Each structure stands twice: as structure tokens, then as C-alpha cells.
Amino acid sequence: MSLPPTEQSGNAKHAHLLAHKWLNPNKLAELVRTEGLVYKKGKFSAIEEQQLKGAIEKYQHEKQISSEQLIDLIFTKSDKTKDATFWSELTLAVPLRPIIAVYHHVRRSYHPMQPLGEWQPEEDKKLIQAIADLGQQWEKISVRVSRRAADCRDRYRNHIVNKDIRITGVWSKEEEQQLTQIVTDMTVNQGKDIDNDVFWGKVSELMGGKRGRQQCRIKWTDALSKTVKNEGQKPRWSQQDAYILVHKVDSLNVRDDTEIDWKLISDPDWNLWSAHTLQRRWLTLKKSVKGYEDMTHQDIMEILRLKKAHLPTVAPPATKKRKERKVTSAAAVTEFDSRDSNAATPEAGSSTGVGTFNETLSQEKAADEDGLDT
Question: Where is the HTH myb-type domain (predicted)?
């Protein structure tokens, strides 16, 4: 199986391109196809956070600017006045990250409006009115609602759109079949990637708005996609999967598991499991190491390598041998009746027949878990 590239695999041309060209997702995808561009997506790791913080402090020290001036630099009034050199220097500190991703991440991290917890009904009303007045101009809406732009956007599209008809709770079989058909029509039937070429807002719309985009994404990635990939059979996590996961993670040579892009772990020969599932399974494996809280990633990895040193063999399915029922023949009954009348009588409550037994098979039930909205 192929293994995900490490950060060292990027070339100088691509590093310069990512740090200086403001490429949108479509352009990045095109460069991946045409030039083999490798770049990182998803959550920034703890080490990347430290690298960015160090780069910002270095810039601030070299330019002799105050904290207030730094905030003004990060939050310029318009794109025309943003300092491209500043953002390029920060991007060079985190290899394989596009400059536009660094821009949005730093602005979220340093935003004066930090996450405020659960949304209140009054805030929802304010958000709905702001959208009616301004459209989906999230930066302007952010100022009016006093919440971060990304929080306003996610609150609107995940919780407010179609709220009156939204269904929560267990999915019906009909809903699962409908979602499967929509996703396969959107991807497989058009020769596209079943995992990465799905527009969840459109999927929600085709579901009649009764399930939100986040609900559809989680249901598909964590429950339905693996069944579709496994030709209708519901796969179960095995010791072989655990072995593969440990050795996949080991091959990355990362300094900390927060650096792992879980979407890159699977490959065509081992792609039943979603990124969310793999991350959960890794956490379970890590927690199986006693004292893992005080260990480095390398220490944990060394122990797991030893625990998963050999590829487990697949045991043949166990076949239960049917228990034979003991039957008392008519001849035996006649023989008992003809015995000496002085023979001992069985105690009250005893039985000469064969009792029955119940055999219970327990199956692991896969549960949908909420993930972060992307």
C-alpha cells in the first residue's frame, strides 16, 4: 500500500508557489492534477501552531511593531492593503500550507471575538436579520452579530437553514438509501472521488433540506461510505486494521500526532474507513499504552510497534456445532416402568428431559459522532 508523503517531499518550486500565490481551492486541485503539487489541508497541528507563533514574534521583533500594530496588520480593512510579504514569511514557516490557509488560520486565531459558546435565540434572530440585510457577507455580518465570521457562516448553514423542517435522531432506511443514491450519483456515476468530490450543501438540498449538510456528511463518511465500498457488506474493524494503522502512522515520521492529516492515511487498498474513524481508532490505540499522557509521540510509537510487530492472520469464521438433543426412546420408558416397584422414585422437581438454552450473538453497533464542520 502507498504511504502518505512527509513534509520533506515538497520541492522548492512548489514551496515558493504555496507561500507567494493566493490560490483558491479549485486552482490548488488543478495543480495537484497537472503538476503533482503536494500541500496540506485540515486542522493545523500543535507544532505548526508553534512555528506560526515563532514566525509572528520574529516578524514583530524585527519590524519593531507593537501588539496593536500587529493586530492592525493581521486585520487590514481590505485585501488591497494587506501586507503580502508578512503573509509569505509566515507561510514559509509551515511547509506545505498554502498562503491563503495561513491567512485565514491566523485571522481566526488572533480574532478579538473568540468563541463565545452556545448561541442564544436573540443572537440567531440578529444573525437572520443581518443575512436578510447584507446577504452572505460574513465579515460584515460578524461585526453586527459580534461573532466571528466563520461562526456566523457555520451557524447559519448548519443550524438555521431549513430549521423548521429539519429532522434529528436516527436515520430511516429510506433516508440512508436516498443519501447513498445522491452521493453515488454525484461522484461514482460521474467518475469522481466518492470521498472528496461531494458538495454537502447540494446533498442537503437534494435531501429536501430535512437533513443538514453536516448531518449528511457525518452519516455518509462514518456509516454509509464503508458499506458502499465493501459491496453492501458492513465491515468491522479488525486486528489487521489496527496493525495497518500503526504502521501507516509510523511511516509518517511525524513529531506529534497532531501533525497527521487523517484524510491521507488511507489508500485504494485500504480505504473503508473515514478520516474521523481512523483518528478515533488511533486515539484508542494510543490510550492503550500505560502512561501515554507523559510520553512523547516517538515513545508511544515504539511501544505500539512492538505490540503490532506481526500482521495478524484472519481467522476462519467460527461455525457453531449444533447441540444434539437427547431423546428418551419409547423402549427406555417401557423398561423404566417395568422395573421393581421398590426402586427409588426421582425427587420432586427433577426432570428426565433435556433443558433448552438460549444462544445470544452480540454485534457491535456503529454510532454516528459529530465532527468538526469543514
Answer: 111-164
pLDDT tens column, 136-167: 999 899 989 989 888 999 999 988 988 889 99
Q: How far apart are CA 96 and CA 330, in angstroms?
A: 83
User: Cα dist. 28→37, 106, 260, 278 in Å?
Assistant: 8, 20, 20, 25
Q: How far is residue 63's CA from residue 70's CA, in Å, rounded to a whole number?
A: 10
| Integer Rg of the chain from CA | 30
* Residue 102 exposed, middle or buried by CB count within 10 Å (0-12, 13-18, 19+): buried
Q: What's the CA gap between 363 and 188, in Å, rounded?
A: 30
In this predicted structure, the answer to whether residue 362 has a pLDDT above a threshold of 70 is no
- The mean pLDDT of 288-317, rounded to a whole number, is 87
121-160: CATH superfamily? Homeodomain-like (1.10.10.60)
Helices then strands (H, E): number in the chain?
A: 17, 0
Q: What burial class does residue 265 get, using C-beta atoms within 10 Å of its C-beta: 0-12 exposed, 13-18 middle, 19+ buried? A: buried
Residue 293's SS3 state is helix
Mean pLDDT of the chain: 81
Single-letter amino acid code for the residue at 289: V
| Cβ neighbours of 191 (radius 10 Å) | 7
pLDDT value of residue 237: 93
